[in-house]
Amino acid sequence: MSQQEAPKETGEDANPVSIIVFDETDPGNLMSDISEGVNVIAPMLLGGTEGDEGFHHNAAAAKELAEYLIHRLDLSRRGAFIDIGYGSNIHVANTFAENHIDSFALDKRNKSAVDDHSMPELWRTNEFGVKEISGDVVDIEHFPGEFPQQRFGLILFNGSWESGGNNYTVNSEESGAPADLGLRLLRKTAILRSCIDMLVPGGLIGIISSRYAFHGQGYSFENLPKERSNFLKTLSTALSLGLQKLYVFGVTHDGMRIGVETSRNKGARVAETYKDIDPDDLIMGSYVYPSSVIEAVLSELRQAQNNSSSEFPQLDGISRIDALFMEFS
């Protein structure tokens, strides 16, 4: 989608799902912005689980993203908002509250929610008016009694759907998910089904890549094809649960190529002061994947985009998926 064009809605010739795509050319799309390059830095585990990718401890970016989503998805008219597994990133929920949207956030805050698996309960209401709920997302249907018949216009998993870094909300053993991958899939299906039951008509479930979580730990460049595959698996499950309309945020293959070249150029500029270091090995002082790995990943992403799940051929033009927002019948 070019900046001048409206997002193209498709789906009539493929499946009943209407799909709107916002790519890197969409103004304000922070997630898919490739103007500063694509992160091709190889992960270096030095005892920590946090990364410097995405919106790492960047409250301003988190708020800007919230403002963009409110505008782009017309969230002011949809109803209440809840951020699932928000951790230390209360900034998104605060921004929704500042936009006069009834705002909630859910995470395991009380010791009883962790040790005794107690039902969700109101933990506190913060200075912005956000109701912070302590509990497990698997029990979201058992919402605190202070909010009878509570339903939502957006249930958001902002980097908390897939495990990454310090995220234990949905798919890690710390969250209560079993080690067996098949059982984990059943847990995720149950969570998705419960969340659907908590939506108002026209409400959305949003899943944003852990690249943009506050702890900044997402899939490494080498694992982007795996992330894309996991997003498609989630969509396949959603389709079986009545997915009706889909908003996708992501980067085209051409965009990925431009982003990689931008990063390489940054490395070349830095390497001018390090004549004995190949620009391919240095970006802002950090070692990156060699060209052979980068080209293999880009090739795999292009192959994946040309052979998307037969259920969603409309996504063939998107190499890197950054977020999904799903509406159900």
Report on this model:
The chain is an alpha/beta fold. The chain folds into 2 domains: 1-43 and 226-235 and 252-322, no CATH class; 50-219, Rossmann fold. 29% of the residues lie in helices and 19% in strands. The chain is built from 7 helices and 10 strands. A 10-stranded mixed beta sheet has the order 1-2-9-10-8-7-3-4-6-5, with helices on both faces. Strand 1 (9-10) and strand 2 (18-22) form a beta hairpin. Helix 1 (59-72) packs across helix 2, helix 5 packs parallel to helix 7 and helix 6 (253-271) runs antiparallel to helix 7 (291-306). The radius of gyration is 20 Å and the shape is globular. The two termini are 27 Å apart. 44% of the residues are buried. Residues 1-6 have low confidence and may be disordered.
What is the H/E order? EEHEHEHEEEHEHEHHE
The CATH class of the largest domain is identified as: Alpha Beta
Structural class: alpha/beta
In the CATH hierarchy, what is the architecture of the largest domain at level 2?
Answer: 3-Layer(aba) Sandwich
Which helices and strands appear, and what pairs or packs with what?
Layout: E1 9-10, E2 18-22, H1 59-72, E3 81-84, H2 91-98, E4 103-107, H3 111-115, E5 121-125, E6 131-134, E7 152-158, H4 181-197, E8 199-208, H5 224-240, E9 243-252, H6 253-271, H7 291-306, E10 318-328
Parallel strand pairs: 2-9, 3-4, 3-7, 4-6, 7-8
Antiparallel strand pairs: 1-2, 5-6, 8-10, 9-10
Helix pairs in contact: 1-2, 5-7, 6-7
